[in-house]
Design a protein that fits this description.
The chain is mainly beta. The protein contains no helices and 22 strands. The strands form six sheets. It has a four-stranded antiparallel sheet with strand order 3-4-5-6, with no helix packed on it. Strands 7-8-9-10 form a four-stranded antiparallel sheet, with no helix packed on it.
């Protein structure tokens, strides 16, 4: 059985799946829909991981990859693209004591820290216009909330950081709609993890998958037309699988059904978006 994470595709009807590349996690599509950023463990001579770094590749030839970072940290995660596809934002401890957000240009150069706080910041998600960054911050109690910040690409800095969620529990996994008007996220405020939607300013929260079965739902992704939401759930199995349901509510359709545990799901951008 395969024990390492890989990149797979699945069609919307759930009938066709396939392996694209091995040893890949935290995949992020560039705005062009054909270039990918991802995290891969760098292995030492003994075959053990010595670091987690950000790489880029293309769907045309996913075996040809280019390493973007060399921070040497084991917790590097969640690269996301700038609006023009020239840079990436990601999370990593780097040489510090807690996870921070970083920015790096694809053309080269050293990554820059966007945050430098005692709290752990992770899961960056940049709005389609590149002007607002959503991310999670973990407080001293271990709970996480979603924060929003104005991102200034010219100087690669964050301004006006503000909390978008404040619930009795944790909120995490922020993901923007393709039109930039909504943010999907997961939260365990009701006991188990469910999928929610809120507007781009952090208001008008609406639950999408609350079902009372005790299933954990996480990692939401909105379709380019805004009508569907894909997510992971363990509601019918002891492994997380991909599900699809209408944003307005209705029955969920299971898209994957295998021995694998699915870890991440994202819609591919349309070229004319």
């Amino acid at each position: 059985a395969r024990t390492e994470a890989g990149l797979y595709f699945v069609t919307g009807d759930g009938l066709n799946t396939g392996l694209i590349a091995d040893r890949v996690r935290d995949v992020s599509y560039a705005p062009d829909g054909f270039t990918l950023a991802f995290v891969r463990e760098v292995l030492g001579e003994d075959g053990t991981a010595t670091a987690s770094e950000v790489f880029v590749t293309t769907l045309a030839d996913p075996e040809v990859v280019r390493q973007v970072t060399q921070l040497g940290a084991l917790d590097t995660s969640r690269p996301v693209w700038s609006a023009d596809g020239s840079a990436l934002i990601f999370a990593s401890r780097g040489t510090g004591d807690s996870s921070d957000l970083w920015w790096v240009a694809l053309e080269g150069g050293q990554p820059r820290r966007l945050t430098d706080t005692p709290e752990a910041e992770r899961e960056p998600a940049l709005s389609p216009d590149g002007q607002t960054l959503a991310f999670t911050r973990e407080d001293e109690t271990g709970f996480t909330e979603i924060y929003l910040a104005t991102f200034v690409p010219e100087s690669a800095e964050l301004r006006d950081i503000r909390a978008a969620t404040d619930a009795n529990g944790s909120s995490y996994n922020p993901s923007w709609s393709f039109d930039g008007r909504r943010i999907a996220f997961a939260s365990d405020r009701a006991g188990d993890s469910d999928i929610y939607l809120m507007d781009a300013e952090g208001f008008d929260e609406q639950v999408v998958t609350l079902d009372g079965t005790g299933a954990d739902d996480r990692m939401p992704s909105l379709s380019p037309d805004g009508q569907w939401i894909a997510y992971l759930s363990d509601g019918e199995d002891d492994r997380f699988q991909v599900y699809l349901m209408p944003v307005r509510g209705g029955a969920a359709t299971r898209l994957t059904e295998s021995f694998r545990t699915d870890e991440f799901v994202r819609f591919r951008p349309l070229r004319d978006q």
